[in-house]
Amino acid sequence: MEQFYTIQGEGFNTGRAAYFIRLGGCDVGCVWCDVKESWDADAHPRYAIADLVASASEHPGRNVVVTGGEPLMHDCLPLTKALQEAGFKTWIETSGAHPLSGNWDWICVSPKKFKAPLPEVLAHADELKIIVFNDSDFKWAEEHAALVPSTTRLYLQPEWSRAARMTPALIEYVKANPRWQVSLQTHKYLDIP
Ligand SMILES: C[S@@+](CC[C@H](N)C(=O)[O-])C[C@H]1O[C@@H](n2cnc3c(N)ncnc32)[C@H](O)[C@@H]1O
Ligand SMILES: Nc1nc2[nH]cc(C(=O)O)c2c(=O)[nH]1
Ligand code: SF4
Ligand SMILES: [Mg+2]
To answer: Which residues of this UniProt protein bind S-adenosyl-L-methionine (predicted)?
Structure first.
């Protein structure tokens, strides 16, 4: 759908330069999705993998975030193989609702109520990032934390439109449950892509 070089705004790798490749197509249907224009894969141009790698290579950063849309609706093996052969670290942002494909250096799973994550994807999560839309999401977060490895980093991220309302509760939750960390969409505060 689009590519851009920016700063990873969310989660464990927040603050690190990365080239983003946003793949079109998503069937999860989150009501609060901040990139709904990605849902229809056919609405976007197709790019050759070699051209994506060449575009990423124009920048000094050597981290690539593959996101979407839902990137795991595609077979990510050819793209990640080409990126790693060119010297990039491959990071994915996924809901986990489709089978895992690709070779990944960092897997961020952000499960959704709208379409359940697959156990095989949760089992490979380096990072679990729960979007907090209302108070019931803390219990839901714990249910998913029980499904990932004990080494998986745990993040709570306020849903953007509800951030002003939910962030105080999120802060109190992390203070009381310190194995969780706060993740903010820092790129939105910085006004960068
Ligand atoms: C747009 S999604 C694309 C990748 C994948 N479909 C997924 O949901 O993980 C990228 C990240 O943005 C998060 N996100 C999407 N809309 C958001 C919103 N309104 N507020 C906070 N986070 C949001 C998702 O949970 C996910 O972690
Ligand atoms: N800067 C920046 N960081 C991000 N982290 C995850 C994003 C995404 O949409 O997947 C995202 C994004 O869209 N921009
Ligand atoms: S899974 Fe990701 S891209 Fe799909 S609707 Fe939800 S937030 Fe948006
Ligand atoms: Mg985003």
So the answer is: 32-34, 69, 110-112
